[in-house]
């Protein structure tokens, strides 16, 4: 028994790995108890998210200086206890998730009326944040599954908030396919545990190479399918455009920013870090998924007239770009994928928020019935255009740098794989630009149809401020990308060679 | 369901089940049982009460909103894990306190509070679902 328990004291500073998650969880519980008072839960949610952001900044800075941080629950030693392990990617994604949540909370506050008091919105948002944060920071595959379920429960509650028939339709599609994905994930976990007897990520890295490669390949393929469904990669992407536009704009913005990114992150970690030998076997499949998602995403947006459905197709295109990094799996490619996930969390949320404002200003959800908004709302048109350019990857905006890293990695890789991925990335940028500017022209430029009178946008300073903050962030990081690029390089180094990660968990001695 | 026999017996069943659920919850540390199964038994008791005396009576008997009970459980479970911050060990490390009460020793620990938290979560969540499904007159079942 003694050798299973950690005897040395755990540094109090290590608690910073679990604090963001625990704060969000406790905040969600408190908000649920106080849900009769929307004002109080709003302030509580703000407080919790700000505290989580502070913890995550501290965590990211510490990882920046000292490398990955890990803590194993209950003083059990690693493969037996559940580890929480954060490397730079995990910590910075968790930070981006909290920042996005904070701004969405402000935006939602402008949209909410006193009648929405008891729906537990803030509690569910905090629960969603807990699930997302846990997914990014955990160092244990089964624990990752638990956070997937927490996320699923919270998002299922959020997607039906409001309770219109359309939302229930979207919720059934969303809920069923995501439930299927988590079940496949659970199946893969059972097989993996039966094969190598561990689910601790650092331990898997050491033990997977000695297991039967055929079995591990089957498990990796199951994981790829499960995470691909979660991430809405082609060909299992149909649920996203069918459901993300149904809830209120703030909620779909939160979903677009957080949920699919967790799927990509899980795919990145499990395929590139945990089962690298198997990833090489699956490489053509991953490349095909990436290329198809990258091209079919913006093509879908091109053929779509419903504004927020079109945004959903942009999300899918971005998922393809992140999968391109997984297909390349060189440090450059991994860095590109990480930077892309970071960028996508910010820009996709902002895109949905701005879309929500457009829908509010015009009273329409279909771009065919919009038009002439340029005259009445210049800031909105500027924000939307900036975001479209950022998603397409036009320099010097945020989206340019991840794509540059990916194209660089693709060129360096060469061969049919690198070349086709580079071509697809460029095509994705061009198609996104065409689809995005087409929507922009329809909504803002075109002479208005029908009555010819566009209603003046309802003033909501909070909404503008929240969306503008993300847009500003996207421009600022795009103009001064040193931090982003250095972070991508460093995070990718830890993913490509997880020695520091394993050492942080405390399994360095047992690795072969 | 709305027979005299059932309505007369139900309070007895409910009381027995609730006491038994606490017993199952507390013995769970070393023997079969625990917060989850205890909470399920308690939630079944609330469901029986809802069937015999109506949903509103069951809600009144719970005193608190079932969802709030579940939230309190999450709060208790998370807080029990946080206590180990003060002992210089990792999150969720158990802390034990042995109370000497006359001839017997009562072991108190943070896992027990975690289990009580789980009990409340299951009781609250399942009761909320159960009471949500039950109709007021008990005839719908």
- The DSSP helix count of chain A reads 20
Query: Share of helix among residues of chain A?
Result: over 70%
Report the radius of gyration of chain A as a whole number of Å: 22 Å
Work out the oligomeric state of the chains in this entry: heterodimer
In round numbers, the mean pLDDT of chain A is: 88
Shape of chain A: globular
- Class of secondary structure makeup of chain A: mainly alpha
Most extensive interface, chain pair and sizes: A-B, 25 and 20 residues
Task: Please tell me the overall pLDDT of chain B.
Answer: 87
Strand fraction of chain A = under 5%
What is the beta-strand fraction of chain B?
Answer: 5-15%
**Number of separate helices of chain B:** 5
Sheet with most strands: strand arrangement of chain B = 1-2
- What is the number of domains of chain B? 1
User: What are the segments of chain A in which pLDDT stays under 50 over at least 5 consecutive residues?
Assistant: none
Order of helices and strands of chain A: HHEEHHHHHHHHHHHHHHHHHH
- Side by side, the strands of the main sheet of chain A go 1-2
Secondary structure layout plus pairing:
The complex is a heterodimer of chains A (512) and B (141).
Chain A lengths: L18 H15 L4 H29 L2 E4 L10 E4 L1 H24 L9 H17 L3 H19 L5 H32 L4 H7 L5 H19 L7 H5 L5 H26 L1 H27 L4 H22 L2 H32 L10 H4 L1 H15 L7 H14 L1 H31 L15 H19 L2 H15 L2 H7 L7
Antiparallel strand pairs in A: 1-2
Helix pairs in contact in A: 1-2, 1-4, 2-3, 2-4, 3-4, 3-10, 3-13, 3-18, 4-5, 5-6, 5-10, 6-8, 8-10, 8-11, 10-12, 10-13, 11-12, 11-17, 12-13, 12-16, 12-17, 13-15, 13-16, 13-18, 13-19, 15-17, 15-18, 16-17
Chain B lengths: L3 H24 L7 H19 L1 H8 L3 H17 L13 E6 L2 E6 H24 L8
Helix pairs in contact in B: 1-2, 2-3, 2-5, 4-5
